[in-house]
Amino acid sequence: MGDVKDILGMSRVKEEKDDKPAPVKKEKMKRPEGMSREAFALLGGSHPIIASQLVSVKKNDILKKPKPSTKGIVTYQYKPFKNQARTDDLELCHWVKCYKGANGIIREPDDSEYPYAKYNKKVQLMKYNAEEYDSLIRPDSGNWTKEETDYLYDLCEQFDLRWHVIFDRYEWPQAPPPGRSLEDLKERYYTVARKMLVSRQGREAPVANHPLVKQPFNKQAEQERKRALLALLARTPQQISEDHAILAEARAIEEKRKAEAGAAKRAAAAAAAAQQAAAAAAAAAPRTTSPAQPGRPAAAPAAPGAPVAPGVSAPGALAAPGAVAAGRALSPAPAMLVSELRHPAEFESAVPPGTPSLFDAEVKTYKPKPGVYLRGAHTQAMATQQAANMTGGSRAFKAVEATLTELQSPTALFGPRVMTRATSGAWLALRSEVIALHETRRNLANRLNADDRPGGSAARRPEKRRRP
Amino acid sequence: MSNNIYGGDEVNAIVLDLGTHSCKAGYSGDDTPKAVFPSVVGVQAGSGNGMEVDTGSGAGAGGKGSGRKLSVGFQPLSTKQIGMEVQSPFGPDDLFSDWELVEALYNHAMKDRLSVKPEEFALMLAEPTHNSRAARERLVELVFEGLQAPALYLARSAMLSAFATARQTALVVDAGFRATTAAAVQDGYVLQKTVSRTPLAGQLLDTAAQAVADAKYSPLRPRYSFRRTEVKPGEFQLTSVDMAGVTSSFRLWSTEQVAAELKEATCRTSEGRFYEAEGVHVPTVVYELPDGQELLLGPERFRMPELFFQPAAFVGQFQGLTLAPDARSVPEVVADTISKCDVDLRKDMYSGAILTGGTSLIHGFRERLEKEMVELVPSGTKLKLAAATNSVERRFSTWIGGSILSSLGSFQQLWMSKKEYAEHGAPLVNRKCP
């Protein structure tokens, strides 16, 4: 072999002999504790032992002899027992676990009391005696005799105030026709009990919190309730579906009303803030912008150089929707409300690392998928998406374009020539605000048409502020 | 105190349930009765000395003054007996009327079948749900004076059936032998005013099955009236047995047993209302009677249980079947019971209805009843009819409930003891066992 390699000209590398590979060190399995030596030897190392089985082997070793209890050997004896809950001395027999000591049989330690005797609970009723009856209760008993009241009390005690059962077993032949109803029985019992309670306490005050006194039994209410329940059960499917429909409509009306109230509140708050901001702006350093500057954060520094142009035009557009929104309460149809208008200064080019640099159609910071993007192209795409998102289609967008054109700034229509983060953000914000203006206007127009009011509303179609 | 059953304390008590079809007896704490035998007694006019004991057939006590010889159990009633009348202890209103027979049945259950001494065991007795006060007091007297039991409790069947399904509030529909009973149980007490019954039950179905067989083929032959021997492998020969001296009640009862087997094997409830025109497509089954005769049954299988749901329409189909004209169908009875309940209870009753009883084991009975009920109750209420899937549980649900109740630790204070009976007399039972 070697000379063949010589002939071929292959290099000869001395390789170490590995016909006897070092055997992989076989892990010697340690015999687990719970297992006997013989059993482990049988395993042969081929079957992995599951740990859980071993744990149980140790604990419940069934081969282990049970430890003798100190009490003795367990025997069961059939013994008679007394039941303390009984008044006679009936003795029945049952099996009892006894321990047999060395000398004889010792019984269960606590065999004096029958463990179930304590469950003999009864409802505590206050029973009147003869004088109390004569003085307190007889006066306004109506057609209840003492015997009948006694009988009723007897049943109440027997059945632990389970009214339906009491009513079922109530049989008083002298009861006035048409017989006692469940409410009659309850009323009688509760009036008597209430009088007893109050009289035994002396005054009404200490027991004012007792349910008997706080919520007296109202027979009329009970009867009404039962009648209503019967009617409820007797509804036909038609009536049920009608009821459901009515409920659904009521819920919708409620929601609309709530939303309107919410919008009104917000608009009122914004108007109040607008008033404040206007006052503050008038007093502050003169600005080139128009006086009404709603929703502006208090720190409105001198607009930086680059976004001056769109910044100038933006407030103009901002003022209009602000007036509109403050003018009357609107349904929450506009995409933006006054509080969401943003100052171009908010958009900064130099952002801390980690903040995404692009904006999406809603002018929120937008983190795109990994890749290379041109800010200009992306921003234009976002602009078209804003246009597409408009409800109303291309016709409505023409109005938007018209507005943008009126601002007499090619930047407003086509976008800033240099797309930095600040400029692109500001431009998208401008566009979205103009779109919101138009949408609001359209909503208003629809509302007026739908309501068909003869121009009675206070806030009419507002005049658009025009820039000179 | 036994620690393995929660709240349980098995005392020496026997549970006896004497129903219209069979008598069930066993120890309290068991899950099935040990002794089940027909609740009828074979009565033969005695020879006069009154206390004859027939060792071969396990007879009960002989008639004390009437000179009757009473035989209880399967054995004497299965073989041909001359001059023996078969009588049931129940009267026409399905309450105990012949107290001697009742005592004979109880004695047979305890002494012969369970081999216990009544003096040593407290007795839990199941009584009919609509039992009257007089019948209850009489029963109490019988037990304490006649059987000398140390303690007793009378529980209504509906209450026990509810306990067997671990419920205290339920609407119990018991499809039994002589009648189907619907009762509302509230908090462990049967509401007496809501109990309603209808005679549409197992016995009626037996008669219907008999009518079917008689009409189509030949009259059913009771088992004792023939002997069937195998002359060649696969071939049988029938020899008639002389039937002279057999009383008509005995013959009727034995024939009814054959009809009952036929009913149990072939009856099916149809899912909707059964119309005859559809019956043409019903597949027929072959049923072999004990005497080798084969019956082909098709739409008859559906017609028989239809009696429960449309009694008036179907009663005419069975010759010889008579029904009271105002017999109500089973769904009507259930709806009637619910309407007698207070309004507040109805919701619980609708959603917690239980179906028990041997007759309810007919295939498809529960589903059909539930469906019919849904039409009768106000729409929108949730109706649920539960039934045990185990046939043993359904047939013996009353007995099982008694076994559960008497083995509870907190029940032991409710027994009515002999001493109390001696002091206050039988009417105490209305207080102690409401």
TrEMBL record, chain A:
Region (Disordered): 1-33, 284-308, 446-468
Domain spans labelled Myb-like: 142-193
Transmembrane stretches, start-end: none
GO molecular function, a single term: transcription corepressor activity
Keywords recorded for this protein, A-Z: Chromatin regulator, Nucleus, Transcription, Transcription regulation
Major place of residence: nucleus
Superkingdom of origin: Eukaryota
Keyword Transcription belongs to the record: yes
CC annotations in GO: NuA4 histone acetyltransferase complex; Swr1 complex
Subcellular location: Nucleus
Pfam families: SANT_DAMP1_like
Gene Ontology BP terms: chromatin remodeling; DNA repair; negative regulation of transcription by RNA polymerase II
Protein name per its UniProtKB record: Myb-like domain-containing protein
Organism, as annotated: Edaphochlamys debaryana
TrEMBL record, chain B:
CDD domains in UniProt: ASKHA_NBD_Arp4_ACTL6-like
Gene3D superfamilies: 3.30.420.40, Actin, Chain A, domain 4
Sequence similarity: Belongs to the actin family.
SMART domains, per the entry: ACTIN
Protein name, as recorded: Actin-related protein 4
